Amino acid sequence: MSERLLTEEILEVLRKAPSVALFSHVSPDGDCLGSMLALGLALETMGKKVTFFNPDRVPMALAFLPGSDRIRQTLPDPRPQVLVFVDCTDLRRVSLTSDYFGDSIIINIDHHISNQKFGHYNWINDQASACAEICLTLLKQLGIALNREIATNLYTGIVTDSGCFQYSNTTAHTHRLTAELIETGLDLASIHYQLFDQKPLAQVKLLQAALNSLELYADGQLAVMTLTLENFRQSGADQELSEGLVNHARSIKGVEVAVLLKEVGAQEIKSGFRSNVWFDVNKAASQFGGGGHKRAAGCTFKVSLIEAKQQVISVIEEGLILGRHR
Amino acid sequence: MSERLLTEEILEVLRKAPSVALFSHVSPDGDCLGSMLALGLALETMGKKVTFFNPDRVPMALAFLPGSDRIRQTLPDPRPQVLVFVDCTDLRRVSLTSDYFGDSIIINIDHHISNQKFGHYNWINDQASACAEICLTLLKQLGIALNREIATNLYTGIVTDSGCFQYSNTTAHTHRLTAELIETGLDLASIHYQLFDQKPLAQVKLLQAALNSLELYADGQLAVMTLTLENFRQSGADQELSEGLVNHARSIKGVEVAVLLKEVGAQEIKSGFRSNVWFDVNKAASQFGGGGHKRAAGCTFKVSLIEAKQQVISVIEEGLILGRHR
């Protein structure tokens, strides 16, 4: 089906539906919640009955999103005729199986190339920096006037999934859509404060512990940080708060590969690998039974932290020095 | 003079000039260098002879800017008929006095509200997120086709001065101009890597030391970090690299005021104050003979680090608890 035809059919289904349920993925982030809420609030302005579902609770940092207090962890009952999934590559991401669908019409909106196309209508655009970009395009085609509540949700989706417009998925189109959102009168200072300036103290303590463990190898091309169970306990941080810490090591001048090793249990070490320019960390991680992408990968070790660290250093240092894993 | 008339006169002066010298400010940043280089490279496509001046050397992190190798620390001789100053609030910012001007025509392009309007033509727009925004408008009006070299310089100006589109000076117009720049085929990944992922190890070590000193007061509303002379010595960092560190303290949930105290000499302490929502740090800093803005200010103490810290905590804690300094 051509994209235009697909879009028109989706618009038609949504226009006709008296009630719509929206679904977003586990461990919710700014893009899945922002996309879901924006779409739902917009459909309500068309007089639809709308319900919001997420398997997990809304994270504190995203509780400012307009409409977020209406997201439920129980499935809508009765099940509406139209179910819309946003930012979900597959049904496991939303803790469901297709048994739930019954005779409902499934619309699947996503920007992940790996999307499993589980819907009757699948609008997948992997060129979009965020699912919110696709949702904004959809709303414009539905002829819905943007308001601040809808725009706040969509902006949050874009700014979080594009890494403040820094990730490689950011395009000229991303910036133009953002301009339209800002023109609704967005309170950017407040959104940025909620998103980026409300870090739990535990997260900063975890960064402190990670930096205190920082070591360089391979003439400064490899940076390794470790977090022990004790570090998590002392900082009061859970695993989730270590997200992104590895970038502090990756961004050091001269570093090509950065590794964060986290002790998550006895003889259980989770690792995250990042590279900057040429080293394929997916290949390195696959040597330890893990994987991912060229510039971001990971694996789990069933050994001690010290042993995992030695293995990682040995493999990556050799790769860096011999110029392997390109 | 109306803005339109002013713009037209500036265009006319530039069109007629056979040679132009461009000037940018001391301690050069991405916006002043990017603006100057973009303007100069564009004028060259019109067949002008162009020279670039900055009192200081180009920082390593900005050496990737196209044309940056042509910036000189010596004044152009002979002095061209047209001199263009970018991003300079006054002539001290470029280590000059008006004695230098002779009978040259001075064009002054800036986005600082405090600009001293020292030129014959002063294009000051304090609504622009970066001087590069104004320069792009100028280039479009000159009818110059953007190329990647020009766009790389302008994008760098915008992305650095807008804090990756996070500062409050970012507008819908900023994003639309950015879209135009990206469409020239900018290598965003490479620009971001050069700007943000080439941190000196010394800077990361300084962050480590700052975090190790972090203390909270006033029920977590005040975060204080200190850097000793020994911290600077051990990390190998100079003062400049402590720029921005205070934001790690400011962004902690619950913190209203963050302070970084730096020992820069015996009995000489430089301090930076930041606030998030309501506390006027300008008022607090002025109690110590310093000043700045409501949300960012600073002062210098002629006492020991311990004493300066005690004074700061005492004044700010009281202000926070009594709700003063709004």
UniProtKB/TrEMBL annotation, chains A, B:
Domain DDH: residue ranges: 20-158
GO MF terms, alphabetically ordered: 3'(2'),5'-bisphosphate nucleotidase activity; nucleic acid binding
E.C. numbers: 3.1.-.-, 3.1.3.7
Gene3D superfamilies in the cross-refs: 3.10.310.30, inorganic pyrophosphatase (n-terminal core)
Family annotation (SUPFAM superfamilies): DHH phosphoesterases (SSF64182)
Residue ranges annotated for the DHHA1 domain, each copy included: 222-317
Protein name in UniProt: Bifunctional oligoribonuclease and PAP phosphatase NrnA
Gene transcribed to yield this protein: nrnA
